[in-house]
Design brief:
Structural class: alpha/beta
Shape: globular
Order of helices and strands: HHHEHEHEEHEHHEEHHHEE
Number of strands: 9
Bound molecules: benzoic acid
Strand content: 15-25%
Radius of gyration: 18 Å
Strand order of the largest sheet: 3-2-1-4-5-9-6
CATH superfamily of the domain at 6-132 and 154-183 and 233-243: Vaccinia Virus protein VP39
Mean pLDDT: 94
CATH architecture of the domain at 6-132 and 154-183 and 233-243: 3-Layer(aba) Sandwich
Oligomer: single chain
Number of helices: 11
CATH topology of the domain at 6-132 and 154-183 and 233-243: Rossmann fold
CATH class of the domain at 6-132 and 154-183 and 233-243: Alpha Beta
């Protein structure tokens, strides 16, 4: 279970749904379509999908995010993306900036293909190969200095790796690419680390502020410009796939 603070997320990371517009265009939602939004977070994009006339169900594994999304008046359920139980229900599955939090992508894709009607589409974007490489190295270095085990590296797949996974799970991949997307951080790297490395900082207790100083100083030469503006080294994997006709695997 995940305990994001939706206020903190909106203050430090409101760019996440804002940068989802290109993905919405790739999805091209139609009025009356049934769409599943996987990892919908605080529901900004779920609400936009509903405003297009689609019948949208959002799922997220964070109670605080589910609560924030429900306050927008959208149908959002507290469900883990690796444990979907929908069957042949959706014309499309959509996911923005969430799937890099998933550990078991085989369970995820099995659930998504099962949720879709035949020919239903799956349109998603998440961190791809090389995503936040500098940030990960800095976090790791600061923890290793303290003889602490760094967080397990997240899964940021290549195009070839994820294409093969999608095909194995019964999808036809129509479009897939890796997109380097340097992303300005409105509250600097400190704000980003406070939201997205929360569990690491919590492990450090009273040493967290000093650790943040060290991460910031390691990252300044590569991610901060001479005017003091910070940019995260994001790389996105973006794709559109559709469910193959015929019986599903498993
Ligand atoms: C991402 O959007 O790529 C991301 C955000 C927070 C932590 C890790 C990755």
């Amino acid at each position: 279970m995940n305990t994001w603070s939706s206020e903190s997320y909106l203050r430090h990371a409101s760019f996440v749904p804002q940068l989802g517009q290109a993905l919405l265009e790739l999805l091209a939602p139609q009025p009356g379509e049934r769409i599943l939004d996987v990892g919908c977070g605080e529901g900004t994009l779920t609400q936009q999908l509903a405003a297009c006339g689609a019948i949208v169900v959002g799922i997220d594994n964070s109670p605080t995010m589910v609560e924030a999304a429900r306050a927008r008046g959208v149908d959002v359920r507290l469900i883990d993306a690796e444990a979907l139980t929908f069957e042949d229900e959706f014309d499309a599955v959509f996911s923005n900036a969430a799937l890099h939090w998933v550990t078991d992508h085989d369970a995820l894709l099995a659930g998504i293909v099962r949720s879709l009607r035949p020919h239903g589409r799956f349109v998603a974007e998440f961190g791809g190969h090389g995503n936040i490489a500098a940030i990960q190295v800095a976090v790791r270095a600061v923890l290793e200095r303290r003889n602490l085990i760094p967080p397990r590296p997240r899964y940021y797949p290549t195009v070839a790796e994820y294409t093969s996974r999608l095909v194995t799970h019964g999808f036809i991949v129509e479009q897939i690419s890796l997109i380097p997307r340097p992303t300005p951080l409105p509250t600097g790297i400190r704000g980003w680390l406070q939201v997205f490395e929360r569990s690491t900082l919590d492990r450090l207790g009273p040493d967290a502020e000093l650790a943040l100083d060290e991460m910031e100083s390691l990252l300044r030469p590569s991610l901060c410009d001479t005017s003091g503006h910070w940019t995260a080294d994001y790389v996105r994997l973006r794709f559109r796939a559709k469910r193959r006709e015929g019986p599903r695997n498993g």
